[in-house]
Amino acid sequence: MVNIESDKKLAERLKQARESMGLALENLAILTKIQKKYLTRLESGQYDKLPSGVFVVGFLKRCAKVLNLDANEIIDQYRKERGLSDQKDRQTDGFGGVKSGKILSGNKSVFVITPKIFSAFVALLVFLAIFLFFWHQMKFLIGPPKLILEDPANDFVTLNPSLTLKGLAEIGANLTVNGRRLEVSKEGKFFDYVNLSAGLNLIEIKAANKFGKSKLISRKIILNQ
């Protein structure tokens, strides 16, 4: 094990140990799998510019292994220089990752988002996004097109010979009113007037998509004159 004077500052000890082994920062970064910018901050004592304490402990363990230093000794020195409690960062594994996802602070348990937890969360979001995409595509393929008739909402009797139709339909669907083609707007809306005859009028609104699926809504309107 490399004998580096323990009365030196931690940053100085790390740099001296690296240089005594003839390692450049780039090489140490490769061996420890720690980004060079973090190693630079460790060797310059810029601890406030490093990730949270549990990650720093992991960095120090990796550096100690490569530089042949006593890991417990340099971690204790780091805590002393930072004024940290010994209880913090104890729940780490051999690479600085948090085993339980928590660290101890006094008598309280504080949840920590570790790389593993973050990666699992991102993977879950990706899975849900893919699932929702395919679910939407399957629903689009096997289900009827969207068709909602907002007005008139029900069958009714009227004295007005002109009937207003409005509603929502799937964009791109073939929409007809009693066989007459009706355009659907870019917002998925439709609007039309229908002239009523005296007595019973059957109004049929039909939407069909390119996959041969269709949906029909009908209204019975009685015109009293």
Can you tell me the CATH architecture of the largest domain? Orthogonal Bundle
Per DSSP, what share of the residues sits in E-state strands of 2 or more residues?
25-35%
User: How many whole angstroms does the radius of gyration measure?
Assistant: 35 Å
Helical proportion?
25-40%
CATH class of the largest domain: Mainly Alpha
Strand order of the largest sheet: 4-10-9-6-7
- Global shape: rod-shaped
Give unreliable regions as ranges: 87-108
Helix-strand makeup class: alpha+beta
Number of strands: 10
- Helix count? 6
Please provide a written account of the structure.
- The model is unreliable at 87-108 (pLDDT under 50).
- Strand 9 and strand 10 form a beta hairpin.
- The protein is rod-shaped.
- It folds into two domains: 10-111, Orthogonal Bundle (434 Repressor (Amino-terminal Domain)), CATH 1.10.260; 147-223, Immunoglobulins (Immunoglobulin-like).
- The chain has 225 residues and is of the alpha+beta class.
- It has six helices and ten strands; from the N terminus they run H-H-H-H-H-E-E-H-E-E-E-E-E-E-E-E.
- Helix 4 packs antiparallel against helix 5.
- The strands form three sheets. Strands 4-10-9-6-7 form a five-stranded mixed beta sheet, with no helix packed on it. Strands 3-5-8 form a three-stranded antiparallel beta sheet, with no helix packed on it. It has a two-stranded antiparallel sheet with strand order 1-2.
- The chain has helices at residues 10-20, 25-32, 36-43, 53-67, 71-82, 115-142, and strands at residues 102-105, 108-111, 147-151, 156-158, 162-169, 174-177, 180-182, 189-195, 199-208, 214-223.
- Helices cover 36% and strands 26% of the residues.
- The N and C termini lie far apart (106 Å).
